[in-house]
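Q: What would this chain look like folded?
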Amino acid sequence: MLRRYVRPYNKYLGGSVLMNVLSAVFNIFSFTLIIPVLKIIFQMEDKAYAFIPWGEGDFKETLVNNFYWYVSQYMGTHGPVVTLFVLAGILIFMTLLKTSCYFGSTAVMVPLRTGIVKDMRMEIYNKILSLPLGFFSQERKGDIIARMSGDVQEVESSITGSLDMLIKNPILIIFYIGTLIFISWKLTLFVLVFAPLMMWLMGVIGRNLKKKSTEAQALWSDTMSQVEETLGGLRVIKAFLAEKMMGARFDKVTGAMRRKNARVSTRQALAHPVSEFLGTMMISIVLCFGGYLIIKDDSFIDAPTFIFYMVILYSVIQPIKDLSRAAYNIPKGLASMERIDKILDAQNTIKESEGAKELTSFDDAIRFEHVNFSYESGRQILSDINLEIPKGKTIAIVGASGGGKSTMVDLIPRFYDVDSGSISIDGTDIRQFKLDSLRALMGNVNQEPILFNDTIFNNIAFGVENATEEQVIEAAKIANAHDFIMEKEEGYQTNVGDRGCKLSGGQRQRISIARAVLKNPPILILDEATAALDTESERAVQEALERLMSNRTTVAIAHRLSTIKDADEIIVVDEGRIVERGRHDELIALGGYYKKLHDMQAL
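A: My prediction, written as C-alpha cells:
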C-alpha cells in the first residue's frame, strides 16, 4: 500500500524520519544528565577525573570519563549547587528540543496521511467513472458507497494513522536498545531473552483480527445499502405502511454489525493491558536482577547508572506498546483495503483497441450485422439483429418491456459490447474507434431524466466546456424550457435539488432535452423520452423533441406509438428478435404484432 500511495509524499516521510531520529537522540542525552545529577545530590562522587585525549582509549570509557571531567571541572569552579541547577537547565532544554522534534515528526505526517486518503478516494472515483455499466448491475450502490466512505475511513484511521508509529517507534527502539547495549551489554542480553515471549503473546491475541474486520466491513456495506434503498423508496415504504418492517430489517443488520464490531474492539482493547502487563513484568525482573547485584556489591554497573538504565528500559517499553497497537490496527485497515481493491482491480471489459481511430463525422449509416448479446447471467437478450440506420433518418424501436429495445441502443455508444456480430458506423466497426470520439457524436434523452444537484444552467451545460449564457438560453428555448425557467426566482441559477426533485417531470425532461440540444450531436438516442409524462407535458416535450430531431439521425424507443407514427422506419422487437419492420401504415396493414400493440393502445 505504501509503495502505491506514498511516493508523491517522500519528502514528508524523510522529514518524519529526521525528526524522530533527533527526538530519540535528544531524549537519550536528556536522560544521560540524570546520572551526574543523582551523584551530585547524593554526594556519591569522590573520584578525580583526568582528561583523556580522544582516540587514545576505548571510545565508551573516553566519552564517559571526559563527560565527568567536564562536570567535575565546572563543579570545582562554581560549586555543586550551581552545577546542579545548570544540569537541570540543560535537562529542561534537551526535553524542549525532544518534544519539539516529537511534535514536528507528527505534524509533518499530516499532509502525507490526508494526501493518501484523498488520492485513494480519487482513484476509486475515477475507477467508478471508467467501469462499464455492466459492473454496476452486479453491485449494490450502497456497497460501493460504503467502500468509498467507511472502508477508506478505516484505512485512514488504521493504516495511515499507524504510519507515524511505524516510522517513529522502530527508530526509538533501535536508539534505546543501542543505548542499553552501550551502558551494559550483559544486562541487555538478559533483557532480550523476554522479547520473543512478548511478541508471541501479541500474535496469539491478534490472530483472526483481519478476518473479523472484513466481516464487520461487509455488514457496514449492508447497512449503507439499506439506507440507500430506504431513501430511494420512502414513498413506497410510507404508502404500504412498511416503516416497522424496514425498521426491523435495519435493526437486524445493525445488530449483527454491532456484535461483530464488539468482538473486534474487545480483541483490540487487549493490546494495551497485555503490553502494559508484560512490560511491567520485564521491568520488575530486570529491577530485581540488577538490584540484587548492586546490593551484593557484585555489580558491573553502579546505582546511578543502573537507574539511568532502568529509565531507558522503561522508555523502550512505550514504543514497543505503540508498535503492538499498530500491529492490531493494521489488520483492520488491510481488510478494508482488500474490499477497496475489489473495485480498483475490477476489469473494464469495454476497452479501446490498439491504434483506435478518432471518429470525427457521421456520413453514411449505422449498421447492426448478426448481433447477439447476453448479460453476465447468461440469458440471451438479442439474437441475430440486422439493422441499418441511414444518416438523417428516424428509426423507431417498439415492443414489449424486456424485449431488448434499450439494450439495442445501449450497444451503439458501447455501454456494452456485442457477444458476436458487429455494429459499424460508416462501414467501420465501432470497436475500432476511440470511445470518447464515438460517444461525442451521440446525445441521449432517457425516460427518467437524470439531473444533478446543481443549477439549471449547469445541468443544461453539463459536458459542454465553456458554454455561454446565450447558447444555454437558445438550447432552453428550443427545448420549450425557457419560459418556465424564467418564472423561477433565480432563473437559470435555480438549484434543481437532488435528481431534480424541485422540478416537475415535464420540466426535468425539457432540461434534459436542452442538454442534448446544446451538445448538438449528429446521432440522437431517445429512450422512451415521453413515457412518464402527462398529456400536457408530453405535448410540450414532443414539440421540443421534434425540433431536436430535425436534421439528425434519431433512434427512438417508444411505448406510445402515437409519438413515432411519422418515423422513417419502425422496428418491432419481441424477445430479442426483430419480428416486423416498416412504416406505420405498412405495419398496420400487415395485421401482425404491431397492429395488436396499436389496437391495445387505441382501446
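The radius of gyration is 37 Å.
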